[in-house]
Amino acid sequence: MEEKCIRCSKIVPWVVLLGNATLALFQIYIGYVAKSKGLVADGIHSGTDVVTTLMVIITVGLSRHRDDKKYPWGLGKSEFLGAVFAYVLLLGIACMILLDALAVIASGVIHPPHMAAFFAALVAVIANYILSSYGFCAGKKMNSPAMIANAQENRSDMLSSVAVLFGVFAANIGFPILDALAAVLVGLMIAKSAVILGLQAFKNLIDESLPGEKRKLIEKVVLQYRQVKGVNYIHIRRVGQKAWIDMEIIIDPKRTVKEGHAITREVRQAIMRRFNQVKEVTISFTCKENLVTKTNRPLGAKNQLNPVA
């Protein structure tokens, strides 16, 4: 991984934190002065991102803790725990925004906001796009679930700001209720994001396996060796930014134990080289009689580990 990406990943959370804090204060102030329910709700949404970004800074720092006797798997799970906490908080904020906006609509007393709210929402759209793009770049490079989750929140903020933009404009051309409806839409978007992403973070926390296509990629790397006749199982667990793999391969019963260990070492090194997000691979082997290779090719020479071309 490039050194500049590592340096960038350490700076990104602080840039996003400052950006979200500034944006939240700006939106809430303009929304209050311009009397725009939608913009105030969007500002609160940005404010919750300040909390989630703080969680990213804390949990990413914890996940970099080196493995030791007390924590042999490391502290990578702290990223998922932080993400779950952040999304529970977001769900609570969404409910508050929805209740407030619905109360205004039910009262029937609705006035169009000042057009200053329109330009404030436009600034928010641009700012959230920049912050989310910055966060996605660093999160994907580092394979950090917490950074990616935070970037997704900024992308969600951008979409809600677009809704506020149209709501304020429509309210000023004769449809005042649309500003309050924009606030309702913001609340629903926050709630949807919190539930979907929160459930995904929870699944990672309880060791849900990686998607089938990633398992197939790993199996493909393993089966490139003629001496490997099949794979009995592949168990994968994510620990923050890294993955741990436990698997059992099938080799020809004529092979000795020493040869079996040599094969597993070579396969392990191949996986580690191919997937840089893999922290550790544990491979055991077993034998099976009369097993035909998937490639229908004969075994390689004794003690030679030749990948299939």
Structure description:
The chain has 309 residues and is mostly helical. The protein folds into two domains: 3-205, Alpha-lytic protease prodomain-like (Up-down Bundle); 212-287, Cation efflux protein, cytoplasmic domain (Alpha-Beta Plaits), CATH 3.30.70. It is built from eight helices and three strands. It has helices spanning 3-34, 37-63, 77-107, 116-142, 145-171, 177-205, 212-222, 257-274; strands at residues 228-239, 242-251, 278-287. A three-stranded mixed β-sheet has the order 1-2-3, with helices on one face. Helix 2 (37-63) runs antiparallel to helix 5, helix 3 (77-107) runs antiparallel to helix 6 (177-205) and helix 4 (116-142) packs antiparallel against helix 5. It is elongated.
Main attributes?
309 residues; Alpha-lytic protease prodomain-like; Alpha-Beta Plaits; three-stranded mixed beta sheet; elongated
CA(first)-CA(last) distance: 28 Å
Q: What is the ordering of alpha helices and beta strands?
A: HHHHHHHEEHE
Structural class: mainly alpha
How many beta-strand segments?
3
Overall form: elongated
**SS summary, helix count:** 8
How large is the share of residues in beta strands? 5-15%
Helix content: 55-70%
Quick structural gist:
With 309 residues, the protein is mainly alpha-helical. Helices cover 65% and strands 10% of the residues.
